[in-house]
Amino acid sequence: MTTKYEQIPSSLFVKNRKKFAEKLLPKSLAVFNSNDIYPISADSTMPFQQHRDIFYLSGVDQEESILVIFPDAYLEENREILFLRETNEHIAVWEGEKLDKNQAFETSGIKTVYWLSDFDKVFKSLMYEAENVYLNKNEHYRNAVETELREDRFIKKIKADFPMHNYKRSNPILQRLRSIKEPEELALIQNACNITEKGIRRLLSFIKPNVWEYEIEAELIHEFVRNRSKGFAYTPIIASGNNANVLHYIANNMQCKDGDVILLDVGAEYANYSSDLTRTIPVNGRYSERQKKVYNAVLKCKEEAEDRLVAGNNWYRFHKEMGEVYTSELLQLGLIDKADVQNEDPKWPAYKKFMMHGTSHHMGLDTHDYGILTDDFVENMVFTNEPGFYIPVEGFGVRIEDDYVIQETGKPFNMMANIPITVEEIEDLMN
Description:
- By secondary structure, the chain is α+β, with helices and mostly antiparallel strands.
- Helices cover 36% and strands 15% of the residues.
- It comes from Epilithonimonas xixisoli.
């Protein structure tokens, strides 16, 4: 085994492939490629991150892997095939072991495993049997990819080699499937949340006036990695004072001043699954009266959001409803007045001056996970809940965020319920 995390039962990936295969048209074949390893310069590379789709369907967490799913293949052994980079003694010495055919079966539940050198020959015979081919492009609503992926090069080649087939899109199927989590997935996300909790508890006794943001980052990475995480699920935001008003502040290079609050948007990953947490805590262990007032208003918005993160609601309706909640809280804080609301532009309501991002996004294998926004919320979808008010004129911002599982009925389940959140809990632990 070459991963830090404990092996995930192959039954999860068997189940995921079955769900995917059921959505394909008859006589269809689907292909998934691993991510590239991205070069930096000279012989340096970025640490490998597996493409989440091939991971979701196979559990294979290494480069240069290809998965083929062909439910109607005439020969049963051709219905699911993994192609892997051939391992040998030289590779084992220089890079560490790669999956052999037996380990690949134990990981994925796929019996037919070939080395990549056999791909062209085997794939050609499968293509002559298939009518439809499902290819995979990133269709996430936030995607902004400028890099050519291994998947892109593959799509170009296959369309050139087999121009007469009927090509279809895998991504809409995966967006739906991946947005509803299996119990095993919820357990992995919960573990990521628990590791994040350990990091936050460690910080509450560590943070003091004059500490640097990067020192806080170092405490977290220490705690995450020693709990079998690869590290942060996304680039950490450790934003003291006015830095909190930069939504994606990732420099983390300022000193934390007495009297300021620090906005920490940080989460551990575990087994490629994300957690996503935000807390806003006082550098000196005590909130000022004004900081406390804004903090409690944001906390109230978060509780209001819980009542709306329920089965049957949808993302658009939920965000519209939350706009009314923010408006009411900002009026009470005196940050906007009745005239601002009466004269507001419906496309950019008055509250957006102080709360300019969404309240929730899908979370899972990606921090901003797959999910079709027009679909209703259903049981076992996982969402963040992250209201915030950002007040540059007062030199601080507050965001509070936990991760929730939609339930069949009633309020969602908070996977971060054990992480200190109230003013009292945070002040007690810091003092």
